[in-house]
Write a structure and sequence with these properties.
Helix content: 10-25%
Largest sheet: 12 strands, antiparallel
Strand content: 25-35%
CATH architecture of one domain: Alpha-Beta Barrel
Radius of gyration: 32 Å
CATH class of one domain: Alpha Beta
Shape: globular
Structural class: alpha+beta
Number of strands: 47
Length: 862
């Protein structure tokens, strides 16, 4: 009993240590992750019948599978290719070029791709990437089957061969069985001699062993041995018998995949759906990616036309432009994931809309990703490189991989780490078919705009009066200061609410009233704020009364106050944020961190200031942060909100612990946007990815030019043609760009209908010296307000009566060269009955009876 009493304190101490360890473990590895399964799209097609063709014969050697008022869908029983016949112009869009076999450029490998609707990339047993193509590895093996579904056809593919290959040849076989079952069945004496050389007699036991090294090193020898055993009638049962006799276990896993693609007509569009959750395989399904309809609608070397790609505001690639010495176009939808983004190109514009288009004479298609957009790579290439066709297609990356270094003393190697949390919903692409006057990029923009309107994403504007003037104001920042030589971080106001009111009154005095103000640095320690699960206003920028007075001043002039919030990234030392549990992690387990771009190194991983480091928020905890934010922000009594990254950035967490793929992260972000929009319908969004448009009253940082890839020929305002009349928008702040040419910027604003946007501080730049905010060196308002007033007055004079008018047309009257405004010399943009001519060249231009001066513009109103 005494011994027990003595042990009690020790037991209590051990129990306390165990509890502490358990708590630390749970905080580090546990925690709730949002259940997003209800967001994952999965089509449920139940009416599946044996294929029954319709009685139409528009396309030779193909059978009609479905029809609408505008289109007829055809499919080939021979190779499972499809075609779409457009009743309006009798144009036939083929999934695979008809004259591919006579292509003078394409090799056999590319010809196989030209005959395939699907490229299927997966990780094999060695964790290397392998690819199956739907023609070579399915249809050509008679492993593709057709079924009728409502308004379409299902093509079921078995990818890969069921042949065992060299694995069907025994490692050890007795002399009697080798000669009786195989050698005696081979008539050619040279074949018999060759096969005999591939086996060597064993010394320790009777029988022969296969020379595996020779066969592994020679593809020809391997194929010949396999052929001889198959032609001799050597069966799988024979292999089992020989392995059992030799005491060997037969461990065979075939890289065979079963999947299907649905092709369905709806109105003037074709819907292609591939359900990832229905992909079956003989072993673990390690699907890496897809290439869908790579040659659908491809333009030949004899055709005239162009490819539209959504680089920045939009760009055109002319068919057969001869730029084969430049790289083909490849663009990641929504930009490269910051989790994997270390290097930053010198000039880039993220892709905001998951679309591309192909236009030929009197026919065009516009393709958009419905499901899987965050996994999408948009590809486009011209004829003359790998084939004689101009192509554009969507590629999808469903699973990431990385290489982990393994080192011990002088020995070093690496191992492949594969993402476990792959997307398993549907991959869905919709193709719109355009005819007549709509068979161009203008028609593509209208088609996409109508699609967004029909789905409730865009609603027409009703605002009237002067156009908005967008103003981002930097409120409070943190700056290192010293007391008796001891460093500490102090909150420093760059602009107080009262000083902001002075700036607004100054602009009002010059007739500028519709000021939409995005206020950065108003809560949780300033611009680089803590996690937004709670709200602690920064007292240094002013009192609540000062803020309310500023809001009243703005609203009196049809303006607005939009406090900016980041949800998908937080400062490294954020209060209330458990980094080990709430931060995104990459495949190797490293935290997802990034910094502002180091201009010298073009890297995000080497910040000039160590305090300029952000941690990416795990998408699985984002809904919980929003749960806490909504009541906290409601208590502030503000009826507007600016979202700095929720509609701009998509990031995943690829680590095996609580991993969430990028498409699921997009779906989670879209759901949180809907929740915030339900609370506040007056929201300003930065960037404006397509999934965020429904929640935006104002967009800032919208691209107005294409990125300057050499393969591109023309920049077009496709984004503006979709948005104008439905969402009010501006570009990046004029005074924070890498270069400033006032005339060029103004002409671009007029050509694209983009309202002016400036970023200002009340205090001069000296207050931000030697901080991460010194990149805002040109934001002191006194340096810019005269320029801003002049630009706004010119812009407002043109567009004051066109605030709700869509941009119905854009034409390139005189192409220019890269480096000029929009890469064009002269353009004309149409807003209702108003036409705005812009001459960005150095020479006057005759437009009818009017001469437009060099570096000038002219407005024609009817």
């Amino acid at each position: 009993m005494k011994r027990l009493k003595k042990m009690i304190p020790r037991l209590c101490f051990v129990a306390a240590i165990a509890i502490v360890i358990a708590v630390v473990y749970v905080r580090g590895t546990g925690g709730d992750v949002y259940d997003f399964s209800h967001l994952t799209p999965r089509a449920n097609v139940t009416e599946i019948q044996p294929f029954e063709p319709l009685a139409y014969t528009h396309v030779p050697n193909m059978l009609a599978a479905a029809q609408t008022e505008f289109l007829v869908l055809y499919v080939s029983q021979a190779d499972a290719s499809i075609a779409v016949y457009d009743r309006r112009n009798s144009h036939v869009w083929h999934s695979n070029p008809l004259n591919r076999q006579s292509d003078p450029i394409a090799n056999q490998f590319e010809e196989n791709i030209m005959r395939s609707k699907l490229g299927f990339h997966y990780f094999n047993e060695d964790r290397n990437t392998a690819t199956y193509w739907s023609y070579r590895d399915s249809a050509a093996l008679e492993q593709a089957e057709l079924f009728s579904i409502p308004n379409g056809v299902r093509v079921s593919f078995t990818m890969g061969t069921t042949s065992l290959g060299i694995r069907g040849v025994p490692d050890i076989i007795s002399e009697e069985r080798l000669y009786d079952l195989v050698m005696s069945q081979i008539e050619d004496e040279y074949d018999r001699a060759f096969l005999r050389q591939q086996f060597v007699r064993m010394r320790q036991r009777p029988g022969y062993v296969r020379k595996s090294n020779n066969l592994e090193q020679s593809n020809v020898a391997r194929r010949e041995v396999v052929r001889m055993f198959e032609e001799a009638g050597y069966t799988f049962e024979d292999l089992l018998y020989d392995n059992e006799a030799a005491g060997l276990e037969l461990d065979i896993s075939l890289d065979v995949f079963h999947l299907y693609m649905d092709f369905m007509l709806e109105g003037d569009s074709l819907i292609v759906n591939l359900p990832i959750s229905q992909v079956e395989s003989e072993r673990d399904n390690l699907l890496r990616g897809l290439d869908i309809m790579r040659y659908f609608g491809a333009g030949s070397a004899d055709e005239e036309g162009y490819i539209f790609v959504p680089s920045g505001s939009g760009a055109l690639i002319e068919f057969n432009n001869g730029k084969t010495n430049h790289e083909p176009f490849m663009g990641v939808v929504y930009g490269v994931d910051p989790l994997n983004s270390m290097f930053v190109p010198q000039e880039t514009h993220d892709i905001r809309l998951p679309v591309f288009g192909i236009a030929k004479e009197d026919a065009a298609i516009l393709a958009t990703v419905v499901n899987g957009s965050a996994l999408t790579m948009i590809n486009a290439d011209i004829s003359g490189r790998v084939s004689s066709f101009n192509t554009a297609w969507f590629g999808f990356t469903l699973r990431e991989s990385d290489s982990a270094s393994v080192a011990a003393f002088e020995w070093e190697s690496s191992m492949t780490i594969i993402q476990e949390s792959a997307y398993d919903g549907d991959i869905t692409v919709r193709y719109f078919f355009l005819a007549g006057d709509d068979a161009n990029y203008q028609g593509m923009a209208r088609a996409y705009q109508n699609y967004l309107v029909d789905n409730g994403v865009l609603t027409p504007l009703t605002s009237t009066g002067d156009v908005p003037f967008y103003l981002s104001i930097l409120g409070a920042i943190e700056k290192q200061e010293f007391v008796l030589g001891t460093p500490y971080f102090a909150t420093v106001p760059m602009t107080t609410y009262r000083q902001g009111a002075q700036i607004i009154e100054m602009l009002n005095a010059h007739g500028i009233y519709a000021i939409q103000t995005q206020w950065m640095g108003w809560f949780n320690r300033g611009a680089n704020h803590d996690v937004a699960t709670g709200i602690s206003p920064v007292r240094q920028v002013g009192s609540t009364n000062d803020r309310d007075n500023l809001i009243a001043l703005l609203e009196a002039g049809d303006g607005g106050f939009y406090p900016a919030v980041r949800f998908q990234s937080v400062r490294r030392d954020s209060r209330g944020f458990n980094t080990s549990r709430e931060a995104a992690q990459d495949l190797l387990g490293y935290l997802g961190v990034y910094a502002s771009v180091n201009r010298e190194m073009l890297r995000r991983s080497d910040p000039t200031f160590r305090s300029d480091i952000y941690v990416l928020v795990h998408p699985g905890v984002l809904p919980f942060h929003v749960d806490s934010f909504i009541p906290a922000f409601t208590n502030q009594g503000i009826n507007a909100l600016a979202l700095a990254d929720l509609g701009d950035t998509v990031t995943q967490s690829t680590h095996r612990r609580n991993g969430i793929d990028r498409e699921s992260a997009r779906l989670i972000a879209a759901e949180q946007l809907a929740r915030l929009h339900d609370q506040w319908d007056n929201i300003m969004i930065s960037g404006g990815n397509d999934y965020s448009l429904f929640a935006a009253r104002h967009l800032v940082d919208v691209p107005t030019q294409a990125a300057r890839f050499y393969i591109l020929d023309h920049s077009i305002p496709f984004v503006q043609m979709v948005l104008r009349g439905f969402v009010e928008y501006s570009s990046t702040p004029i005074n924070t760009r890498d270069s400033f040419d006032g005339t060029e910027i103004l002409l671009n604003m007029l050509a694209t209908g983009t309202a002016p946007h400036f970023m200002w501080t009340y205090q001069p730049m000296e207050f931000m010296s030697f901080t991460q905010y010194q990149r805002y060196y040109s934001t002191h308002y006194q340096l810019w307000y005269e320029t801003a007033i002049e630009m706004y007055q010119i812009f407002n004079e043109v567009f004051a009566g066109l605030r709700t008018t869509p941009m119905t047309d854009f034409e390139i009257l005189c192409p220019g060269t890269p480096g000029s405004i929009g890469w064009h010399s002269v353009t004309v943009s149409q807003f209702g009955s108003t036409r705005v001519y812009v001459n960005a060249s150095n020479q006057p231009f005759e437009a009818g009876s009017v001469t437009i001066p060099a570096q000038g513009f002219w407005v024609e109103r009817n």
